[in-house]
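Today's session is about reading a structure prediction critically. Students often jump straight to the picture, but the first step is always the sequence itself: look for stretches that repeat, for charged clusters, for runs of hydrophobic residues. Only then move on to the predicted structure, which in these notes is written as discrete structure tokens rather than atom positions. Here is the chain we will use throughout the hour.
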Amino acid sequence: MRKILLLLLLFSSLLYSQHALKKISLQLLWLDQFQFAGYYIAKEKGFYRDVGLDVTLKPYSYGLDVNKEVAEGKTSFGIGRADIIRYDSSGKKIALLAAIFQSTPNVLITLESSNIKTIADFAGKRMMQTKDLVNSASINAMLKAKGIDFSSLKVLEHTSNLQDLIDSKVDIYSGYISNEPYTLRKQHIAYKLFSSKAAGFDLYSDILFTSQKYLKESPVDVKNFKEASLKGWVYAFNHIEESVDTILKTHNSQNKSREALLFEARELKKLAYFNTSKLGNIDPVEIRRIYDLYNILGVTTEKLDVKSLLYDSERVYFSDEEKAYLKRKGKIKFCTQPDSLPYSAIENEKIIGIGGGLLEMIHKNSSLEFELVPTKQWSESLKKIVTRECDILPMAAQTTKRSKYIDFTSSYYREPLVLVTHMSENYILEITSVINKKFCAVAGNSFIESLREKYPNIDIDEVANIDEGFSGVEQGKYFAFINVMMSSAYQMQHSSKKHLKINGQFDEPIEVCFAVRNDDKILFSILNKVATHLDTEGLQKILNRWISVNYTKGIDYWYFREIGFFTLLFILGMLSRGYLLKRKNSELKLLQDKLLELNETLETKVADAVYELEIAQEVASIGSWIHDIEHNSLRFSKQTYELFDVDINEKENLYDFFKARIHPEDLEFVIESYTESLKKQEYYLCQHRLLMNDGSIRYVNTRGRTTFDTNGRALITYGTVQDVTQKVKDQEELAKKDAFLLHQSRLAQMGEMLSMIAHQWKQPLSAISSTEITLKTTIELEKYDLSKETQREEFLSFLLERLDKIALYVQSLAKTINDFSDYYKPNKASTLVSIDSIILKSIDLISDSMKASDVEILLNLNADKELKAHENELMQVMLNVLNNAKDQLLSKSIKNPKIFLRSYIENSNVIVEIEDNGGGIDKDILSKIFDPYFSTKLEKNGTGLGLYMCRMILREYHKGNIEAFNVKEGAIFKITINREAS
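Below is the predicted structure for this chain, in token form.
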């Protein structure tokens, strides 16, 4: 029965998880191949599932009309060609979401053996093309522009069999640049491509679209599906080989080879990022141009509403039912927090603050009407929404209690929850480190309930208002006041409390939503759409308006006087110059011939200098560039053209090529870095990736210096770009090598550690053995008469005493193993720990070994303050140095061998000194002991990595160092650890 119940619970949970996902479908445009990789990846990687969608990818079948399938609601989304625009104008209203390929992959293919050299040779030839010529509008426009009439061609039905072209059953074959050329190359068949792109008739391809009806009913699903799909495409193009392997396993109905899919992927990637860095971009101007092309072809005469055709992720789409509801309802009644600036307040019976700006922006963008229901307290506002006197609360946070009587939309804004402390307190990195302190917060805030649920032991007093909370912190009554970021910043700007600061924040932000009365589902649907499509840029402007510092700068009239003065000087100078020129005219005439001769020489020198510079740039893989900021134009050196893989004859569109070549994931970072350098008038320094035509990645370092006018306006940036791909790869390899060396060094200590474990186990094992013999002898010699009660009790006491001792010995064995196993656990992150505790743990591990070798360790520890450190790595450093000191003492047979260990804090550093009385280090090798693979213990299997890894650990993990020098009786190893960098 119990098993049945468990199965039922499991089955019901599966049903629930499936029900939680919204079922939608996407109709593919063609048979499985890399053409749809982004959608395959989005499904396989769970990108759709992450946004609550269960997506069915519907396979293509010959003759299927994808446009009709979407328009009739048989599928949620479809992939269409450029003719989808014509379809919309015919009355079947659709919405374009993304153009995956910015350039058409359609080409016409002929064999070299056909002797077709130009499009003019097409007349009278056999062409294999789909029946619907509109689907290949770009190709048809190209033919028409070249004067080829379709009536002069023998158009054959497309068989999708390239062998018909190879066998000369057809002269011209309509195909994809990403498919057929691979087959022809593999068979070593010479061919010629005729591309509409080269002829100036380039169109979008593989356009993701849906119906206007579905968009209005499910705008959130449309937005999520589009974003998840584009995420899948970005992943597919960035991981081409992995994506191809996925297609081979699950979506290869055409049985294409891996090489064919790789070829297709690389060609399609070029088309996807052609003249853009934004995957899926749709330009309204381009849509209009495509539609004009259909008009020229004479296949449509209807008008096109481009604005309604293009999906706008910021626009709110209401269904017909929702529009009718809003018309009936009129104004939406709302309550708010009446005295909680900057969020909201009521002034002259109107809402002000962020909430007021929010409602005003929503009204402007969606025409929703709002009516204020005044309240005196926030608790009254909460009460009125329960009694239906209010429809909504514009700014509210969801809690378990509130969810029982209020519905909450998706959050439209995330507000950090912060701690306000006294100015003297250090910044709080981890909230858990101060969770035992006493806090306060304004009563009624939703986050109080959430914090008490997460931190059951948190001590929060509820105060009446923010001013009371600030005063409590300033007077030392509370450690910190808990509040949201915007409110804290606003109140601190307007408060007389000058000794407070925002000093840390909780990991979980406050999700700000619309709270809607729970008996009005249509209103909830409307507000949920508004929340999902809220103009984030507009919202940010509202936030900045309430938390900002404004200033007015006066006019500097001295500036204009200076301009007038220098203008006068300029005019006088020009008049004087003209007079001098007239006098010297005859002399200049005599020098003209000599100047011409010098000019020719100068041109030769300049040409030589340019040539030498080009050679130097080529050798160093450095190119130069000049950015005219006012005209937004670029100039490249020859090497820069090669680095960016741009045709050297291209002059007009270099800026577009530059942006298109930057890796899509780096473009925003590059633009921000450049903009920031102009803003701060600093040198521009940036390392980023380039995405080459063949799909490979190139790393470059870009530098620039900008000139500015007297008003601080940027004029021209002079820059260089250097290929550092090999350097980046070398650094990656070096990092791997260092990690390997660290692991190898740690393993090198294993043998010594194991011998220590064996040594520490000897005494407990010997004691256990002795106890066992005592017990056995006592029993065999029958020292106790078990027939007598007193003897039995004595024997039982004797037995229990010996068993307790065995238990203690076993615990000692277990502790030894635990101590050493803890040491070998890897530290993934730094933790708060004192250096003295690390030293004591290290000594505890080797104490028995030191005692066995008669080595005395003397301690003087004064560094018990905690810092962030990688504990086990620092233990490795200590153990390396201590074991080396012990080996030195033993190898030299030092009488009364000692190791002195001191720790202390010096400014921002922690210092550890390990000194021995072993006679010091030979001067010939003192400078080499930290080199990798240098060892004086080769006969004892020394690796030569110990001290090298000590230095690497200290430098890489703790921004520190280790050095060694001799003193009177021995050597000192000085370890320095930067407390602030650790």
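Discussion point for the tutorial: The radius of gyration is 39 Å.
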